[in-house]
Amino acid sequence: MRSDRLLSIMLLLQTHHQLPASDLADRLEVSVRTIMRDVEALSAAGVPVYTVRGPQGGIALLPGFRTDVTGLTSDEARALFVLLSGPAHADLGLGQALGSALRKVMAALPAPHRPDADLASRRILIDPVRWRGTPGPDHPATELAAFQQAVLTDRRLRLRYRHGRDNRVRTYTLDPYGLVSKAGVWYLVADHDGEPALFRTDRALSAAVLDQPAQRRDGMELADVWDTLRRRIDDIPAPLAVTVKVRDEILAKFLRIHEPDLAAPDPGDSPETETETETETETETGWTRVELRFRALVAAEALLAFGPDAEVLAPDDLRRALAHKAAATAALYLPRPAP
Q1: Is 250:309 a contact under the CB 8 Å cutoff?
Q2: pLDDT, tens digit, for every residue of 26-84?
Q3: Among the CATH numbers 2.30.30, 1.20.1250, 3.40.1350, 2.40.50, which is that of 145-234?
């Protein structure tokens, strides 16, 4: 709608003071001619907007014409711009509304707070979707102050880090892009020797901000590097098929935890085939059969956490692994011999 576009032009000019007509046209996805007509309409409505000719020219707004949001501290302004990732808003059909809202808020912020708010929006990202097969953390990251300082001051970070795969401790000098909260777990997204890398902040043994400026790859922003790293993990195939029967009383909890591991139906199956399979594999009353996919046997061993409320029916290798772990655990709690 034109009224929304006129407001967007005014707010963009409040933020930047002056922009080329072509830049405004690109941002609002209209022609330069349309922008010029809108500028005339704003001027006729009393908005002090004018054109500046020449190579450095463009559309400008008279300095001082703005509305301040009073009472906001710098930290409050920064908090407004620590936002959910773009896909979360797109899923709700709010992508365009988000962009419009941010322009309005940014234009209305007091001028001293705008740089911090803009930096926070580019350096901190929230992604609420859980990794495939990975439950959320039992506790938050121990300390984020050094990570925040590094990403918000564009400094390098020296990190002593304990890796989950082999428990080894290594030291890295990193060029941070920003922080990402993934289903309640905070991650540092950074370059190490010019290559993108991901670090869980709760595995850091120490983190020190260096005096050296971060040396990021040209043209790369946090969202770009995060998308690359996220795809590397999400696109790993999960070849291990696991069949579990789950007690109905805990089925909702089970499905909530293992939703990322649910096996998609074979696209080659017809509805008739799917119905026949369900009839042949029904379990006893009070239990529901669930098909899952895991990347490795060790990942599927997490099913033991449900105890007698979830029984793995297949594969046999997993049943044997769970039986061994259950027996070893039970042995720890056998009565101790009398002294």
Answers
A1: yes
A2: 888 888 989 998 888 888 877 888 888 877 788 988 876 654 544 556 666 666 566 54
A3: 2.30.30
